[in-house]
Design a protein that fits this description.
The longest helix is centred in the first third of the chain and has 54 residues, at 9-62. The protein has one domain (10-203). The chain is of the alpha+beta class. The chain is built from three helices and seven strands, in the order ααβαββββββ.
């Protein structure tokens, strides 16, 4: 007759103790990695935001006579991207109709997420549910640090056009932007999700349009 053998209480306690020790070691490390990813995304957004804002100011001063993005001598997004190329360090560019080389297999449209939102950029998720950052139809460029950028130019933008962001407790749509800039702070690498590694912000007549969280009024340069 076979005798059934089970675990003794001591063995179970030892196993649970080992599991507890491993969890205590690994969970903080995993949480730290999540925070690090978030900090990296925040840093990347701020870096691109500053670079695009500086480049825009250079463009309106050096490339236009009216000092307005609404008066650049461009008819399409490829032209505007090439203007930015004079002031940003692109290592690769792709036209709006041939994006494959810049996307490198990444989806043109991001998946959505509500995991966190950058305070440094307008994430394209107006009601914190259902928006996406879309590179489709945009003129693409890759920065030296691997950041993917997409430019969409509104050639109806004029000197009187104002880019407005209503950014209070919930993010709402942008109106009247001269240029829509989409970015993926880690290029084609995953997660390719809105407000995780993909963001977008508008460019008004004079520069990047931003509005601090909880602000009650929008700015319209």
């Amino acid at each position: 007759m076979k005798i059934k053998q089970g675990f003794t209480l001591a063995e179970v306690l030892i196993t649970l103790t080992i599991i507890g020790v491993v969890a205590a070691i690994t969970v903080p490390s995993l949480m730290m990695n999540v925070d690090l990813d978030r900090k990296q995304a925040e840093t990347g957004v701020k870096k691109v935001y500053t670079a695009v804002n500086d480049a825009t100011r250079q463009i309106v001063m050096m490339e236009t006579t009216s000092h307005s993005m609404g008066q650049v001598n461009c008819a399409d997004s490829d032209c505007v991207r090439d203007l930015y190329a004079k002031y940003l360090q692109f290592i690769k560019t792709c036209s709006s109709g041939a994006q494959t080389d810049c996307l490198e297999g990444a989806p043109a449209t991001s998946s959505d997420t509500t995991s966190f939102y950058s305070t440094a950029a307008y994430a394209a998720d107006p009601q914190q549910s259902g928006g996406s950052v879309d590179f489709t139809g945009k003129s693409l460029a890759v920065l030296a640090d691997g950041t993917l950028m997409g430019f969409k130019y509104d050639n109806t933008c004029s000197m009187v056009t104002k880019a407005v962001i209503n950014y209070e407790e919930e993010m709402t749509d942008v109106s009247g932007a001269c240029v829509e800039v989409a970015i993926d702070v880690n290029g084609p690498k995953k997660p390719n999700k809105t407000a995780r590694d993909r963001f977008q912000f508008p460019v008004g007549k004079l520069g990047v349009k931003m509005m601090p969280k909880n602000s009650t009024s929008s700015t319209t340069p």
